[in-house]
Specification:
The protein has about 450 residues and is mainly beta. The chain is about 10% helix and about 35% strand. It is globular and about 65 Å long.
């Protein structure tokens, strides 16, 4: 039996080698994510080009895609037609990653014929994006879509209203390449099966999953720093059994410097790996998405000529909000080149944020909003006060990591900041911008600041 398994591994290696050799003389495109290098932080409307033949299929303008760029990091966050606007963390030439979307079960009960998800919306008939905020302190993107089958049928269409399932996802993105995902499903069938997270690696044309992901593909961590690494074998996914108690952090171990991570609240959390694997690979390997315009799903890739994707795991956790017609989940995610300790500190700063104490009666502390990753401070009326001073009580259990502050009704210009009495110049470490709303002008401020001790902050 031992020699039989060795023979299988040898055959798989030969298969990959032969397929790679067949592709050596083929000039392959790369998935578009904007120019190489770094640019100022922000969201950019653009038209991402793939191949001349593919581009001609799309009757669209030059502002049809969005790329979020970071001024001191190469990774970018991409909303592209070729992925049906499914948002992906990407590097210029490396693998991409997405935390999925809402998926419903196909069949007679939902009134559909196939997998019901935005992957099936190959022409973006229901999928659309728009930039809500775009300033030096943060970017907010709204992605609206309907999970559909391959015939563009919506799931669970209400007989009275004729409305099927729709989803609104808000992405709040900060300069440190960390984003909050607010994902809301509107449906008349909340009791039916809902999937809202799947860890999906997107493989560039010409690459196999093994080129992008280590066999030790997934690391799970909890808030005490305990971790466990799971390895994929010739039999596929390991099942992700016996994770660290209270785990709430997942890192996908790309072979590149920057690796995607996902964080959720450690309440009712569970995870499992995607079963099976493609012939000649330790991982699943499908090429019906991205880019493909054909009516297909679950199409196993037989070569790496086309872009493909590999699914690793499913996370489940408690919903953030719910009413009779909708349910919302939130998560924190991004790309990092940091180690486990810094990932744990980031998670603590979001899940157990340090307390903020205001030293001014004019302003009201509205508390920490995890759905924005921001402290919210407000004034009952537009404040004439030019100084806002407060203290953040940080410690090992509640560290301060790159905080954001949303100050409502504070229409001020030329804001300066002092941290523990020291002035911080406006730039990469201190960013702010007014946000105009229907009723007021608010202020969003982001600080590149880490601390395990109390910090006094003064905006002036």
């Amino acid at each position: 039996m031992r020699y039989f398994y060795l023979l299988l591994i040898l055959c798989a290696s030969i298969s990959l080698s032969v397929r790679a050799q067949d592709q050596q003389n083929i000039r392959l495109p790369i998935l578009p994510s904007g120019p190489e290098g770094t640019v100022p932080f922000g969201a950019y409307y653009t038209k991402l080009a793939y191949t001349p033949e593919w581009d001609k299929l799309w009757p669209v303008s030059d502002i049809t895609d969005v790329v979020v760029r970071f001024d001191d990091k190469e990774p970018r966050f991409v909303f592209w037609r070729g992925t049906s606007y499914i948002p992906c963390w990407a590097s210029f030439k490396g693998a991409w990653f997405t935390n999925e979307y809402f998926e419903r079960r196909g069949g007679a009960k939902s009134g559909t014929i196939s997998m019901v998800e935005p992957m099936s919306d190959k022409q973006c008939r229901y999928s659309a994006i728009r930039i809500i905020e775009n300033n030096e302190a943060r970017v907010v993107i709204h992605w609206r879509y309907a999970p559909t089958d391959l015939d563009y049928n919506q799931a669970f269409v209400d007989k009275d209203t004729q409305w099927g399932d729709w989803a609104d996802e808000i992405y709040i993105i900060y300069p440190d390449a960390v984003s909050i995902r607010q994902a809301t499903l509107h449906t008349s069938a909340l009791d039916e099966w809902i999937e809202y997270q799947e860890s999906i690696v997107v493989n560039q044309p010409g690459t196999f999953p093994e080129d992008n992901i280590g066999f030790d593909a997934v690391t799970l961590l909890n808030l005490t720093g305990e971790s466990k690494i799971y390895k994929w074998t010739e039999e596929g996914g390991p099942g992700l059994k016996n994770p660290p108690e209270g785990f709430c952090i997942q890192r996908v171990n790309f072979k590149s410097e920057y690796k995607p991570f996902t964080m959720v609240y450690p309440e009712a959390v569970s995870i499992d790996s995607y079963g099976g694997h493609a012939p000649g690979s330790h991982f699943n390997f499908w090429n019906h998405w991205p880019v493909s315009q054909t009516k297909s799903d679950t199409k196993v890739a037989e070569s790496a000529v086309r872009p493909s994707h590999s699914s690793l795991s499913h996370l489940k956790w408690k919903a953030y909000a719910e009413d009779k017609d909708s349910r919302t989940w939130i998560m924190m995610h991004g790309m990092t080149n940091s180690g486990n300790d810094q990932l744990v500190a980031l998670a603590k700063s979001w899940i157990h944020p340090p307390q903020l104490k205001i030293n001014n009666d004019t302003f009201r502390n509205e508390g920490y909003d995890p759905s924005q990753r921001a402290y919210v401070i407000s004034s009952p009326t537009i404040s004439e006060t030019s100084t806002l001073k407060f203290e953040i009580l940080a410690d090992e259990g509640s560290p301060l990591v790159n905080p954001a502050f949303l100050i409502r009704n504070w229409d001020k210009k030329d804001i300066s900041v002092r941290i523990n009495g020291k002035t911080v110049s406006r730039g990469k470490d201190f960013r702010c911008s007014p946000i105009s709303t229907v009723t007021s002008v608010d202020q969003i401020i982001w600080l590149k600041l880490k601390s395990l001790k109390n910090v006094t902050i003064e905006f002036k």
